[in-house]
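Me: I hope this is not a bother. Any chance you could explain this protein sequence and its structure tokens? It all follows right here:
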Amino acid sequence: RISRPNDGAMKMKMLRLRSPSVSSLGPELRCTVRLLDDSEISCSIQRDTKGQFLLDHVCNHYSLLEKDYFGIRYVDPEKQRHWLDPSKPVVKQMKCQQPYTMCFRVKFYPQEPIKIREELTRYLLYLQLKRDLYHGRLLCPFADAAYLGACIVQAELGDYDADEHPADYISDFKLFPKQSLKLERKIMEIHQNELRGQSPALAELNLLQRAHTLDTYGVDPHPCKDFTGTTAFLGFTARGFMVFQGNKRIHLLKWADVSKFKFEGKTFYVIGVQREKKLVLTFHTSTPAACKHLWKCGVENQAFYKCAKSSQIKTVSSSSIFFKGTRFRYSGRVAKEVIEASSKIQRDPPVVHRSQLGQSRSYNSLSHKQLIMNMEPLLPALSSTKEHRDTSLGEEESAITGTGAEVERREQEVEEGEEMGSLTISDMAYSPCASMLPTPVEEGQGGVDFLFQSPGRLLKELHADPEMQAELQAERERELAREALRQSLCSPSSGRQQLGACIRSAARLVAAATVILLILLPLLLVLLESDLDVSFLQDIRQTPEFEQFHYEYYCPLRRWFLCKLELLMEQLWGD
């Protein structure tokens, strides 16, 4: 067999120029995708290249087959995060300047990680959960935090060796937002005793098995306000729709009980059933873009976890019956199809290239031996003085506090690190770092509450703007002109003309209303009385608003009308 070394280059060229359109012959655009281990890969795309090509490019880089759990996320210039739509061109979605930078992340967390077929997929999920732990998205009690931390150390450090590891080797690893000395000692105890002898793959699987039992597993928190003005975090998981306040889950609606998601402006609605009664939850986001992103995430997660087949997925709208608003349809496979496809994988498992961790600078001074191993702190520990550690050694619940934010290598998510304060893992309020907000802000600026300023404060700031002052002056002049026109119309000489104009306007309004009723009444009767199997009509009939109107208003009115009609007919026949 004759080998051709340029086959790979020719194949990539064919992938880039897969479209025969004229626009595909334009200049190539550079895209950089940051992976879960913070490494980066780049590729060139055309202006009509769709998001699916970019996702396939990353999956081919990993040789990943179970790719339905993953997605590519980016941040627009307004700091609002989005998931890249595979069915739309990349250029039309990215509003920022080139080169484009995005992040490869887990989009749908598997409900049962044990059903993941390949070790490679489990390793990528492990990397995502490690990030979730560090950035405060995966909240866990003390015992679970110690076990998860020990699994990470075992997976990346191996078995404990007294000759190579100093007495406080865990202190050089940053695993959690707040990491107390008591927690570090418990992690070392589990690592040295319970997990000895476990391979990296087994330690990673143990972490997945423990993490998926936690309430915040798979939660990508969306900050908002409820109807009382209290800050809450919304999340979508394999179990259903969740609402968190503080460190407590206050709502859980399973997917079988969720009927529909809606949004209007900055208001997000969750319509469902609880205890055989209709339930409507209302939340308010900081911006309309954040509300739309929240709605799309809810629609996608509901379709992925609830539907049995992708053919059952329907196009949904964000608004009411007659005003369709934003229409959207999840275009991927659902969870059951992904698990079924995974069970049919028969290839030899690909080699998992775990991230090569560099040597810890702290170990050079703490250990008497030069460590020759693939090891470094998971993330550098925040600055803390030796005197602080010595004085706090006897305190059971002391925490390591930092002086600044740990920014992840210019990551598009702008994931900022620490919040000042003394918190423990078990008592921490569920307040993810500022990266979870649509517009990242510093804690000193008010955190989440900064995004929901009072209207009075906003108006005060706007009125201080010179451009706004000019617009207000122009508005006052227009108002004076309208007032002068109204006074001229109210003069006695124009009274008859004004009365005639009012009569003509009323006549036109009555005529228009009559025409609209004549058009809508037959359509309403078709919806209520006919059994036409049309997809558009079926979608309307299945909405909660239509069902409520049908059973609470139309049916009683129809029975009353038929009763009156029967009485009238009896009187006529009796006469």
In short: The chain has 16 helices and 14 strands. The radius of gyration is 31 Å.
